[in-house]
């Protein structure tokens, strides 16, 4: 998620480029006017969350329309990869859930790693409050779900209300603008990251079945190779991605969920650049001098090979001054936010809705357990654990955040969607139970978003009155 500073700096860069442009063809101006709003939408923080909502609505519309059968046919269509000694055969639905979603987990793992190294989880004092809040926000929802579903196999769904959808929650915060302090953004993002770590651990330990030791050993060997690449100082991303693909393949056959390959791969991606910033600064100054000196060879860059070579060197130098982690994170952000997560929602969020099913779902223990967990469990866990940590002196409330705003943020933490639906697919074998869980996720997430927005919108007014 881009910060406001980054967005502003990008905006300044764009303005600077407009000033530097010497030529603008007549049609270029019109194309720029058409595509500029799209570019702003893409860079806007809430765009991913908005697109997720649209995908969920579209999924519901497709499943409950005459297009349901063709849509299901597409999801169940087979896609195979065949080689001389290799065969991989899965339907489109599985490719999305276990293939594309691996890239989502890879991006999530990169964000987790960065936060632990230099972000809000990099020191004990910074990390205490979001970690404690996240733990409370995982334990309380799981326990509430088990109150409604104490017996197997329904009790397997206790992991469904644990997760927070970071894109959706932060998207709601962004729409609130200046009414929400930046420190609350940081708190909720940090909480969601710890929440994601917990969800990954739960998936690995509880929702993985039929473990195959040979394939697990192969995956372990690949993981060791990845660690050796990192230890050996390899900065090129290509070998990591090749080994990462092998890791995914072996985990797919090992019994562990294949998407965990994304997390494991992320932890091995290097965090040191190939070129140090100070060295890059010297190189830039030298190359710019050469660039100016080469101007006599010809004004047009098309015929000035010296200037062209200098520009290429500057581009390569800039790329290698970023860490491999940053480069991969930047490359993944767009496809994950605007292709993979919407595709996942489109393939998984659709539930056949009729009056009889809705009536059954609203009183079914699985739906009630998910709703209670996401709505009440998150608030009890996040607020209760945070207040206890502050009261005992283990942590401080973020600057500009009071308990009313903390309460509003804890409601937003009850927005499940992506990860909750993902776990629901793993937890329940029967499709009808998956549908009950998804109904609970959708209802709870909508109520949590509405209540959280209302509380945060009026938090300062309430504070002034009291």
Describe this structure as you would to a colleague.
This protein is an all-alpha fold. The chain folds into two domains: about 350 residues, Na+/H+ antiporter like fold, CATH 1.20.1530.10; about 45 residues, no CATH class. Helices cover about 75% and strands about 5% of the residues. It has 19 helices and two strands. A two-stranded antiparallel sheet has the order 1-2. Strand 1 and strand 2 form a beta hairpin. It is globular. About 40% of the residues are buried.
| CATH architecture name of the largest domain | Up-down Bundle
Overall tally of domains: 2
- Spatial separation of the terminal alpha carbons: 35 Å
Spatial strand arrangement across the major sheet:
1-2
| Shape label | globular
**Total beta strands:** 2
CATH superfamily of the largest domain: Na+/H+ antiporter like domain
The chain-level structural class is mainly alpha
- CATH names the topology of the largest domain as Na+/H+ antiporter like fold
Strand content: under 5%
In the CATH hierarchy, what is the class of the largest domain? Mainly Alpha
Query: Approximately how much helix is present in the residues?
Result: over 70%
Rounded average pLDDT = 79
Topology pattern, helix = H, strand = E: HHHHEEHHHHHHHHHHHHHHH
| Radius of gyration, CA atoms, in whole angstroms | 25 Å
Low-confidence segments? 1-21
């Amino acid at each position: 998620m881009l910060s406001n500073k980054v967005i502003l700096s990008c905006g300044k860069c764009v303005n600077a480029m407009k000033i530097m442009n010497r030529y603008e063809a007549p049609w270029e101006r019109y194309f720029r006017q058409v595509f500029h709003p799209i570019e702003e939408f893409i860079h806007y923080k809430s765009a991913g969350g908005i697109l997720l909502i649209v995908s969920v609505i579209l999924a519901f519309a497709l499943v409950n329309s005459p297009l349901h059968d063709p849509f299901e046919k597409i999801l169940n269509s087979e896609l195979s990869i065949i080689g001389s000694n290799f065969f991989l055969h899965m339907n489109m639905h599985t490719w999305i859930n276990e293939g594309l979603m691996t890239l989502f987990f890879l991006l999530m793992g990169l964000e987790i790693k960065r936060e632990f190294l230099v972000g809000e989880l990099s020191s004990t004092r910074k990390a205490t409050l979001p970690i404690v809040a996240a733990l409370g926000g995982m334990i309380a929802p799981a326990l509430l779900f088990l109150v409604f579903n104490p017996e197997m196999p329904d009790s397997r769904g206790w992991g469904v209300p644990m997760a927070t959808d970071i894109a959706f929650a932060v998207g709601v915060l962004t729409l609130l603008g200046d009414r929400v302090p930046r420190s609350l953004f940081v708190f909720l993002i940090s909480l969601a990251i710890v929440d994601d770590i917990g969800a990954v651990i739960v998936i690995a330990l509880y929702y993985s079945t039929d473990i195959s030791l040979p394939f697990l050993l192969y995956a372990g060997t690949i993981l060791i190779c990845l660690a050796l690449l990192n230890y050996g100082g390899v900065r090129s991303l290509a070998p990591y991605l090749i080994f990462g693909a092998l890791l995914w393949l072996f985990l797919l056959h090992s019994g562990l969920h294949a998407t965990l390959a994304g997390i494991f791969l992320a932890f091995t991606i290097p965090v040191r650049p190939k070129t140090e910033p100070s060295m890059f600064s010297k190189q830039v100054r030298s190359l710019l001098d050469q660039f100016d000196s080469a101007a006599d060879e010809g004004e047009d860059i098309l015929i000035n090979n010296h200037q062209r070579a200098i520009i290429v060197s500057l581009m390569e130098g800039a790329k290698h001054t970023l860490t491999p982690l940053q480069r991969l994170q930047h490359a993944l952000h767009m496809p994950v936010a605007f292709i993979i997560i919407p595709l996942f929602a489109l393939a998984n969020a659709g539930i056949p809705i009729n009056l009889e099913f809705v009536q059954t779902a609203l009183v079914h223990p699985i739906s009630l357990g998910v709703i209670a967990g996401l709505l009440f469990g998150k608030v009890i866990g996040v607020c209760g654990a945070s207040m206890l940590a502050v009261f005992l002196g283990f942590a401080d409330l973020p600057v500009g955040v009071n308990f009313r705003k903390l309460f509003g943020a804890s409601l937003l933490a009850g927005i499940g969607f992506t990860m909750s639906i993902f776990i629901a697919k793993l937890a329940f074998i029967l499709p009808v139970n998956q549908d009950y869980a998804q109904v609970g996720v959708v209802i709870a997430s909508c109520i949590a978003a509405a209540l959280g927005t209302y509380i945060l919108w009026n938090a300062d007014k309430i504070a002034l009155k009291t």
